[in-house]
Design goal:
Layout (H helix, E strand, L loop, with lengths): L1 H10 L2 E2 L9 E2 L5 H6 L9 H8 L11 E6 L2 H12 L6 H15 L8 E4 L4 H7 L3 H13 L8 E3 L11 H8 L3 E3 L7 E9 L3 H12 L4 E9 L4
Parallel strand pairs: 3-8, 4-7, 7-8
Antiparallel strand pairs: 1-2, 5-6
Bound molecules: zinc ion.
Length: about 230
């Protein structure tokens, strides 16, 4: 009986909702209620990161736009925890689609960037997790948005436990020169994809590396934007 119900669910492409566990979700998806209830940001630049930008020294190149789709609230935290720490890589299309829908509204009056790169992770972290979560998101985004994804565009060259550092200024200092761009990006506008955007330090390090290799502009894209007050 159970097997039959399962096959019936498969026939109609019904699956379990990743959020509430009910069985009225589409395959690898959320049920209509949870989808509607996802806490989303308005399609505009992340406020506190744009503000930080304005206080940077003149010589420091900055991200052109900061975009994050979802708010760091319990329903979203649950999805991100499953994705990052419980090895649920199947969540990548769902999360990437949320970001893609957000970005299409953010860029409605202008062209999307020329290419996408993913925030790099160390080989050690990659092995531990079993998959490269930002690269996976970037690949799905590339397909949905029809923007080329540059594999291995950035590399992490120094592992610093930034999230555990007390002061913001220390984090910024340590994040500098922590990434290296491996291609020539001369004249390109480049979007950098991350899962969660918080202090902006990781994105600034990516932008720094990309500008050094000639990028014209760097945009920061993240599935989740965790705003600090
Ligand atoms: Zn649900």
């Amino acid at each position: 009986m159970l097997a039959f119900l399962r096959s019936l669910a498969n026939a109609f492409e019904l699956g379990q909702c990743w959020s509430c566990g009910c069985s009225s979700a589409g395959a690898d998806s959320l049920c209509p209620y949870c989808d509607e209830a996802l806490p989303r940001w308005y399609p505009r630049c992340c406020q506190h990161l744009s503000d930080i930008d304005q206080h940077l020294p003149e010589e420091q190149r900055r991200c052109r736009y900061w975009y994050g789709a979802l708010r760091w609230e319990p329903q979203v935290q649950h999805l991100v925890t499953l994705f990052k720490f419980r090895n649920k890589s199947e969540l990548a299309p769902l999360l990437a689609n949320q970001l893609a829908a957000h970005l299409l509204r953010c860029y409605r009056n202008q062209a999307l960037p020329d290419c996408i790169v993913a925030v790099p992770m160390t080989e050690q972290a990659w092995r531990r997790r079993g998959f490269h979560q930002t690269a996976l998101l970037a690949r799905y985004l590339s397909v949905v948005l029809q923007v080329p994804y540059i594999t291995g565009g950035l590399r992490k060259i120094r592992s610093v436990p930034m999230q555990h550092m007390a002061s913001q200024s220390l984090r910024w200092e340590n994040s500098q020169r922590s990434q290296l761009a491996l291609r020539d990006f001369t004249g390109y506008t480049v979007a950098v994809v991350d899962d969660v955007l918080s202090t902006g330090a990781t994105m600034m390090a990516a932008a720094d590396a990309l500008y050094k290799k000639g990028a014209k502009a760097v945009d920061a894209w993240a599935v989740v934007y965790n705003q600090h007050d």
